[in-house]
Design a protein that fits this description.
Length: 553
């Protein structure tokens, strides 16, 4: 039985939850509360989990074999004990802060004991020996991915496609002893991928000293997540991958755009996919007073946090929507500051349809604090910006056309050609890639018929015909300032006019793209009005737009 088979079997248990009246959005939370107890049991039996065991009376053996109302009551008692550390009489059951964090406020919404019994029997019937071969952490993560791909759940906002995560990690090449952060951690995918990469380079950490090994599992990784339920999933995910973190676990509950983010120590590596949207107050509001450029745009605030929180020589890879690349006003100032303080060496233009908000156009920015010559340099650190266009003339990805590692391999090959060919200095080549040459024509980009208007754009002036079709181009910092006004919305290819009707995106995708374009245009207009000292009118327009959208159900 493969992991995919097991994931499908687990997902089928959602039918049982639905029969008990549990909402679709609560499926995974309800399922993992029970599943984690089972996985801890299997890991303990296999001898792979030596720390953070569940206390006596709260283990799998205290559930299986029971039935009826006694089973349901015992399960509720176990969840309460794991959450509070005490039983119903107030007697201490455990004092493990990580277990308490994982089960914080955990409650079951199950009402029928027979449904709980059915779930326990199904989990007992799974071939856990086969699952152990790939690791229970991978199985758990497969379940999260399954949930994210079910668009009705809305869980995709916490889940970045695995293939993209792996590529971002592969490009940054994290090393043992480095501090790695994700200020918008979601279910912990970036940090786990970094840990798995380091394990692959160190024979599952066996080549490290005991001290270094302890650092990797308890201090190397820190994430922040705003949503308690998502943090629960992330803590489980990390622990099943052997990542313990500090007393709060790897993932801390809080807001990176508040005081918790300001208190983070400097990082060697930051990997992130910050949430889209603007700050509307509440727990997710931007309350930092240490960010130079004040903004309600959460991505611009996250970007400032990330490049400010890197150590000199630290490196980052961040997923950001198109509007961050071209938004005027504060957006321009933030981009200039980024290119001053960091070497923004690479932009990967991503195809549409790979995130939950399918119409949103996104990019990955790769940058390193300081310059290639001096990691402490704070001005003019960016000399050239290399751009890989993986968006133009690519299919609209989704369930029918899944996005995967093969689509990213050509980019990986050109990102750091010396490292790809076995060159030395992994960290150096990841921080400031060298040996690059323009020209990469994957996915038939050389066959794209470009209209004369496209050939006449600034990006294509003085460029030969073959290079115009390349997906991989280089633009100097001076060119970006002179021709783009420090906008990083750099595009030189154009989608072919002839479109096969069979490959057209679904109407929801087209509508999403149209709405994304409108939102980006509104962002530009907002910035322009503020540059023209019409801030009050811009604020009024925002309020009106918010009221209009709030009225749409």
């Amino acid at each position: 039985m493969t992991n995919n088979d097991i994931v499908q079997k687990l997902w089928n248990l959602c039918d049982v939850l639905r029969d008990d009246g549990i909402n679709y959005s609560d499926y995974v939370t309800e399922l993992v509360l029970l599943l984690f107890i089972k996985m801890v049991h299997e890991n303990t039996e296999a001898g792979t989990l030596k720390k953070h065991p569940l206390p006596e009376g709260c283990r799998w053996v205290d559930l299986n074999g029971k039935s009826g109302i006694n089973l349901l009551n015992d399960y509720k008692r176990i969840l309460l004990s794991l959450s509070t550390g005490r039983d119903g009489d107030g007697t201490e059951v455990h004092n493990d802060p990580l277990i308490s964090a994982i089960y914080a406020d955990a409650q079951t919404r199950l009402r029928e004991p027979r449904h709980l019994e059915q779930m326990i029997k199904t989990l007992d019937q799974i071939d856990w020996f086969s699952a152990q071969k790939d690791g229970l952490g991978d199985l758990y993560e497969g379940l999260l991915e399954k949930n994210a791909n079910e668009t009705k759940s809305g869980a995709g906002q916490y889940f970045t496609p695995r293939a993209l995560i792996n590529t971002m990690v592969q490009c940054l090449k994290p090393q043992p002893g480095e501090r790695i952060q994700d200020p918008a951690a979601g279910t912990g995918g970036f940090l786990i991928a970094a840990h798995e990469y380091i394990k692959s380079q160190t024979d599952d950490l066996y080549t490290l000293t005991d001290k270094a090994k302890t650092f990797q599992t308890t201090q190397a990784y820190t994430g922040i997540e705003l949503v308690p339920g998502t943090r629960r999933l992330a803590l489980m995910n990390c622990l099943l991958h052997g990542m313990e973190g500090d007393e709060e676990g790897v993932i801390h509950l809080g807001n990176a755009l508040g005081q918790q983010g300001a208190n983070l120590s400097k990082a060697d590596i930051i990997l992130a996919n910050p949430p889209f949207g603007t700050s509307k107050g509440g727990d997710a509001s931007i309350t930092r007073d240490d960010l130079t450029y004040k903004t309600s745009n959460k991505q611009l605030a996250f970007l400032q946090h990330i490049y400010r929180n890197l150590k000199p020589g630290g490196r980052a890879a961040v997923v950001l929507p198109d509007n961050v690349l071209f938004e005027a006003g504060v957006g321009t100032e933030v981009r200039r500051d980024l290119m001053n303080k960091c070497n923004l060496h690479t932009i990967l233009r991503l195809p549409t349809g790979i995130f939950y908000a399918q119409g949103v156009k996104t990019n990955v920015l790769f940058f390193t604090k300081g310059s290639a010559k001096d990691k402490h340099q704070e001005e003019n650190c960016t000399e050239n910006v290399w751009v890989y266009d993986l968006r133009t003339n690519m299919p609209s990805f989704g369930k029918r056309t899944p996005f995967g590692q093969p689509h990213l391999k050509p980019f990986e090959a050109v990102f750091s050609p010396l490292a790809a060919s076995g060159g030395k200095g992994k960290t150096a080549t990841a921080a400031h890639p060298t040996g690059r040459t323009e020209g990469e024509w994957s996915f038939h980009s050389d066959k794209i018929e470009l209209p004369e208007a496209t050939k006449a754009t600034d990006e294509n002036q003085g460029v030969d015909e073959r290079m115009i079709h390349s997906r991989w181009r280089c633009f100097s910092r001076e060119w970006v300032a002179e021709h783009k006004g420090d906008s990083l919305d750099i595009a030189w290819l154009k989608d072919s006019d002839s479109v096969d009707a069979a490959n057209l995106p679904e109407p929801s995708v087209l509508a999403g793209e149209a709405m994304s374009d409108l939102v980006q245009a509104l962002g530009e207009l907002d910035g322009l009005m503020r540059e023209l000292d019409a801030g009050e009118k811009a604020d009024g327009a925002r309020v009106l737009m918010s009221e209009l959208l709030d009225g749409v159900k």
